[in-house]
Write a structure and sequence with these properties.
This protein is of the alpha+beta class. The chain folds into 2 domains: 76 residues; 103 residues, Sandwich (Immunoglobulin-like), CATH 2.60.40. It has 3 helices and 7 strands, in the order βααββββββα. The strands form 2 sheets. Strands 1-5-4-7 form a 4-stranded antiparallel beta sheet, with no helix packed on it. The protein has a 3-stranded antiparallel beta sheet with strand order 2-3-6, with no helix packed on it.
């Protein structure tokens, strides 16, 4: 369970894949700048060295380092298209979740006893190759003699329809709730989607 200090809003930011890509590119630019700065320092130190053997050893070191750098860049160029397409497949598909029935199950007892909050959730997983995954529900809980509390509870979705529940104390109640972050699922192949009657 994750608590939040903001009592006015239930909005949780979703991380956009393009923002993550921009951050990765900025990190790469920083690393390249550090690399070239160190290389300039190493080059100036090598040039100030007066020993011929030291210069020869430094030249060999530089050639070896450059060949390793070129090989690493070539490997990255070959791997990058496959890894980005796989990443976009994972981030592009999510199940569509919606709440269907919500119930408060309170036991009939003269004593104050805990009760359960139940909800039936419908999952449209027609674009997902996986059959289950995690999602979050955001709640605002009210309690006698306490301020309202916003919190997030993690549940697991499955195909079609499923039930979720949680236990609350006798003096607590759920004021608001909504489906929050839904973890991405692995996308189905295009051929599978065309044969699925759920996809229109």
């Amino acid at each position: 369970m994750r608590k939040s200090l903001n009592n006015h809003s239930l909005a949780l930011p979703d991380i956009d894949p393009s923002i993550a890509l921009v951050q990765a590119m900025r990190n790469e630019q920083r690393h390249r700048a550090i690399f070239w700065r160190r290389r300039e320092i190493d080059t100036s130190l090598i040039e100030t060295c007066s020993m011929g053997a030291g210069k020869a050893a430094a030249g060999i070191r530089n050639r070896t380092f450059m060949s390793l750098m070129i090989m690493s860049l070539m490997i990255l160029l070959f791997l990058l298209p496959g890894s980005t397409s796989a990443l976009s497949q994972v981030l592009a598909c999510r199940p569509l979740l919606s709440t269907k029935v919500v119930q408060e199950v309170r036991p009939s007892s003269p004593l104050p006893v805990p009760w359960r909050w139940h909800a039936t959730v419908v999952a449209d997983t027609s674009f997902c190759a996986t059959r289950s995954g995690n999602f979050e529900m955001d709640f605002v809980r009210i309690k006698e003699y306490s301020p309202d509390l916003q919190f997030t509870q993690t549940f697991r979705w499955t195909q079609d329809q499923f039930d979720i529940s949680m236990e609350l104390s006798p003096d607590e109640a759920i004021l608001e709730f909504r489906i929050g972050f839904v973890a991405p699922c692995v996308c189905r192949e295009v051929g599978e989607l065309s044969n699925d009657p759920r996809v229109k």
